């Protein structure tokens, strides 16, 4: 049986309440016990953030392809706006959507959704002959209209929805009481009692109890679990507690557990005070976990359920299951749950409540016997039993309907829809668009869609572009995974127009229709989208289009090359870190997984996620880059030039501050001053912030003799440079991978590298590499001396040809398509329905206390005379506190943490900058370090200032102690 479920109760406030919990456990009961039932769930994309959170939640149990999207267009709740034209159109669109899926039977799991929000539940209809069932919980507003149906719009909405139960082919009721009520009100005899049960999570909490350090109150206690709205009748329970004999009452406290609005809680606290009860005997715990709730039930002497009316009584069943004696109202479904009439009371009679409460508390042995009896009765309820009852009834209705109904031909359904929408007074184009969004996209073969936007637009021929070109060129056009062929598509998107396929060679399209409407890619549940390129500047467009792809079930995998802009902003272009940070947050929102170019980067990502307590699961993998230098090397003037010195060292990469070129020059100058005849060849383009370095190179006494800079050379000449060198120097402060080290391995060259994790990782396969202390020119000089002075056999390069780009591409594809992840990050406090906008602790909510500001500041480099106006210092800030720090605050930047400087004159006067802040690009987690750039105007030095203090401060809270003093 193909069973369709309306999943909108997982998008509204119902997901936190009884209805959402009921439907979830009911679905799990079917999944666990009825493999012959194919479950299909649809969500309303008209509430996109809630739809995506619900999809992520449901994908724990359902295949992505079995979760569908349709698009409701109601502007607000029917109980507020009335039965509007847009709501009527949405009902038609949903019925059409279900007809397109064509299940054997459909279930409207919560027919009263959309009273106060945009949800539009499925209702009985004649668009198709698919039978429609409902889940009927209760008719409490019908019984108490003066409390729940105060406005005419709310009353009209409720009465319309309630009347629809007469037309459902089957009403699945949650108790015998609700079944009788449904039949009485609707006069529809097609209703059954399918009961309810205890959730898996709650049972797990019983089997694995949480150790509690203390009770919620020193005394024995009576426990109430649930809400505080009017019908819950908590005020009568409190009044009854006050009527207990004093000698009994003084032995007990009254404990509330539940997510209670502050206003309602204050009313109960005030009621307690007016009754003259001791304040310390009233405890309101707020929201508790299942484990905490189980502990509360087991510690309580008594659980009370005083509701005026309940459709079932789940909290009573939970308490019974834990072996806690329950007293409850003699109304609604509670009597059939408890089955113990001596512990039932009239909820409208406080004296009767007090009588039963006194009886339960006065005789502990009798109470213990009764609790055991109730616990035995609780075992009669289970979700497996509920699922079996429901599935049998649904199959029966579906079978009878199938024998009678005509085939739901597309033409018949479309004709019925057109007849319905003719009566809708909305623009035809709008109606057509709404209906089109309700159709089911055709499913083709699974695809791996690879983003190459930035490289396709402009190939800067630098690191990431080289990776993108080589990976795309070497990815096989198809790969078989689990017996299915997965097609490769290289794609481009630089606007909201969508995504378009391009050649895997990334040659520019010559076809005029390459970016036409017909060529646009439509994403589906079988697509995996690999965001391979550095398309950070397009994140605003990608966020929207990839969010839509996620709604349709596509898997988004973002590629992380490094975390340098987040952790080493002082070495980056000033605009790079903020841009990268915003992209990173967007990627965290829309991605299911990250694939990193090294284990080191993957570990850095995990550290960040743990540091901010990221609230959602994230899959994390890594792979290694390749190199293809297999062509014959032709000697040229470049090779001869490189080999002119006795020993020549090579550095490869864009000239930028973090690459350590200045550090290497410092080390070589020490050796030249010692009379060592060594050469240094630098191969790379000029990057950002190295004007002073370029001047230093070109004006150096050894330039053109033993110091060479080869700017923008061909791959052939780069190979010659590798071949003509003795060893590669990799002096970077930070890298995501270290591609030059891999390239050096193809030539069997030794490497002298800064001791950072990724260089250890890249050379772990047997490549000859000696490490020096990162950031230390003295250590680098010492390692070069060791290389020069050691017998050749000791530094004999171990030939390690590494992996090719073909092998690298295949490894990347394998990991992404087979879910072979390195780690799956899971939050410590796992929550359901977390919106993708929730990033965790990434903003400062208030001032930090003294222990939360512990830190260390160290000078790494400087002063660097970037120009005649500025002195630049690179400092390392280490967070030694248990709290993450950020420059962003929950209320603007009022409590943001930043670094700045104070200028000290020779006589001790201090000058403060007005707005000179060095901000944390994202978050500085506990135990981690951040490299910041501090720029101080050189005019202070000209005015006689001698020193500057570089330190941290928190906006609205002031400067922190222990600043770093640096000379100007």
UniProtKB/TrEMBL annotation:
It comes from Rhizobium tropici. This is Glycosyltransferase family 4 protein. The keyword Transferase applies. One of its GO terms (biological process) is lipopolysaccharide biosynthetic process. Pfam families: Glycos_transf_1. Coiled coil: none annotated. Residues 215-370, 648-790 form the Glycosyl transferase family domain. One of its GO terms (molecular function) is glycosyltransferase activity. Keywords: Transferase. Signal peptide: none annotated.
């Amino acid at each position: 049986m193909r069973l369709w479920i309306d999943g909108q109760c997982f998008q509204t406030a119902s997901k936190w309440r009884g209805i959402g919990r009921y439907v979830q456990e009911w679905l799990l009961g079917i999944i666990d016990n009825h493999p012959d039932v194919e479950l299909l769930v649809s969500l309303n994309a008209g509430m996109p953030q809630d739809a995506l959170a619900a999809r992520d939640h449901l994908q724990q149990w359902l295949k992505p392809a079995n979760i569908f999207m349709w698009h409701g267009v109601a502007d607000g709740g029917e109980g507020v706006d009335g039965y509007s034209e847009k709501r009527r159109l949405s009902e038609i669109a949903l019925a059409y959507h279900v007809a397109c899926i064509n299940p054997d039977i459909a279930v409207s799991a919560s027919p009263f959704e959309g009273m106060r929000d945009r949800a539009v539940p499925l209702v009985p209809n004649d668009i198709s002959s698919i039978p429609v069932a409902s889940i009927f919980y209760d008719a409490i507003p019908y019984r108490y209209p003066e409390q729940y149906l105060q406005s005419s719009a709310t009353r009209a909405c409720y009465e319309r929805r309630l009347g629809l139960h007469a037309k459902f082919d089957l009403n699945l009721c949650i108790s015998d009481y609700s079944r009788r009520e449904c039949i009485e009100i609707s006069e529809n005899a097609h209703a059954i009692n399918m009961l309810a049960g205890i959730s898996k999570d709650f049972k797990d909490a019983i089997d694995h109890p949480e150790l509690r350090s203390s009770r919620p109150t020193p005394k024995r206690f009576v426990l109430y679990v649930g809400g505080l709205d009017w019908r819950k009748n908590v005020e009568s329970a409190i009044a009854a507690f006050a009527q207990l004999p004093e000698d009994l009452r003084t032995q007990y406290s009254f404990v509330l557990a539940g997510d209670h609005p502050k206003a309602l809680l204050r009313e109960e606290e005030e009621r307690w005070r007016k009754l003259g009860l001791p304040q310390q005997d009233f405890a309101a715990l707020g929201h508790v976990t299942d484990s905490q709730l189980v502990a509360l039930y087991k510690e309580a002497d008594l659980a009370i359920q005083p509701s005026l009316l309940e459709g079932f009584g789940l909290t009573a069943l939970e308490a019974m299951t834990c072996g806690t004696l329950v007293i409850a109202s003699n109304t609604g479904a509670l009597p059939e749950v408890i089955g113990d009439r001596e512990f039932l009371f009239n909820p409208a009679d406080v004296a009767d409540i007090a009588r039963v409460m006194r009886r339960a508390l006065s005789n502990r042995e009798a109470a213990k016997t009764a609790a055991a009896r109730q616990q035995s009765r609780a075992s009669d309820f289970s979700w497996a039993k509920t699922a079996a009852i429901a599935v049998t009834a649904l199959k029966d209705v579906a079978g009878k309907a199938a024998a009678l109904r005509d085939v739901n031909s597309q033409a018949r359904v479309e004709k019925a829809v057109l007849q319905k929408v003719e009566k809708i007074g909305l623009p035809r184009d709008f109606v057509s668009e709404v209906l089109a969004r309700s159709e089911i996209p055709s499913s083709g073969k699974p695809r791996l869609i690879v983003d190459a936007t930035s490289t396709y637009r402009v190939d800067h021929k630098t690191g990431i572009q080289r990776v993108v070109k080589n990976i795309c060129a070497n990815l096989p056009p198809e790969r078989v995974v689990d017996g299915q062929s997965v097609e490769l598509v290289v794609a481009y998107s630089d606007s909201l127009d969508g995504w378009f396929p391009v050649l895997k060679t990334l040659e520019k399209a010559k076809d005029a229709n390459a970016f036409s409407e017909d060529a646009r890619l439509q994403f589906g549940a079988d697509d995996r989208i690999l965001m391979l390129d550095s398309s950070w500047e397009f994140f605003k467009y990608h966020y929207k289009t990839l969010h839509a792809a996620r709604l349709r079930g596509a898997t988004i995998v973002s590629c992380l090359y490094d975390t340098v802009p987040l952790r080493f902003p002082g070495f980056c272009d000033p605009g790079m870190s903020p841009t990268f940070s915003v992209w990173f947050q967007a990627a965290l929102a829309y991605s299911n997984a990250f694939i990193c170019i090294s284990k080191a980067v993957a570990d850095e990502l995990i550290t960040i996620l743990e540091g901010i307590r990221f609230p959602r699961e994230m899959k994390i993998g890594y792979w290694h880059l390749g190199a293809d230098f297999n062509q014959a090397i032709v000697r040229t003037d470049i090779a001869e030039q490189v080999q002119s010195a006795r020993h020549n060292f090579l550095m490869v990469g864009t000239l930028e501050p973090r690459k350590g070129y200045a550090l290497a020059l410092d080390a070589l100058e020490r050796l030249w001053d010692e009379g060592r005849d060594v050469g240094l060849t630098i191969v790379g383009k000029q990057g950002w912030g190295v004007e002073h370095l370029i001047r230093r190179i070109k004006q150096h006494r050894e330039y053109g003799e033993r110091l060479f800079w080869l700017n923008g050379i061909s791959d052939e000449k780069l190979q010659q440079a590798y071949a003509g060198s003795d060893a590669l120097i990799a002096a970077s402060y930070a890298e995501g991978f270290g591609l030059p080290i891999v390239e050096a391995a193809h030539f069997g060259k030794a490497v002298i590298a800064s001791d950072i994790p990724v260089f250890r990782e890249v050379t772990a396969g047997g490549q000859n590499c000696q490490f020096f202390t990162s950031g230390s020119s003295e250590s680098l000089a010492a390692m070069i001396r060791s290389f020069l002075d050691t017998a050749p056999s000791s530094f004999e390069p171990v030939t390690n040809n590494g992996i090719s780009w073909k092998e690298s591409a295949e490894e990347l594809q394998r990991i992404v398509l087979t879910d072979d992840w390195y780690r799956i990050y899971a939050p410590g406090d796992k929550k359901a329905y977390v919106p993708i906008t929730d990033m965790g602790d990434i903003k400062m909510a208030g001032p930090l206390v003294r222990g939360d500001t512990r830190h260390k500041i160290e000078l790494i480099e400087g002063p660097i005379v970037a120009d005649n106006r500025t002195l630049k210092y690179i400092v390392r800030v280490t967070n030694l506190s248990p709290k993450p720090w950020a420059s962003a605050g929950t209320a603007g930047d009022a409590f943001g943490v930043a670094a700045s400087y104070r200028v000290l004159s020779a006589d001790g006067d201090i000058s403060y900058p007005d707005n000179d802040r060095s901000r944390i690009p994202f978050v500085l987690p506990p135990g981690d370090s951040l490299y910041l750039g501090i720029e101080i105007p050189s005019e202070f030095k000209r005015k006689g200032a001698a020193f500057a203090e570089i330190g941290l401060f928190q906006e609205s809270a002031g400067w922190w102690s222990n600043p770093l003093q640096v000379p100007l």
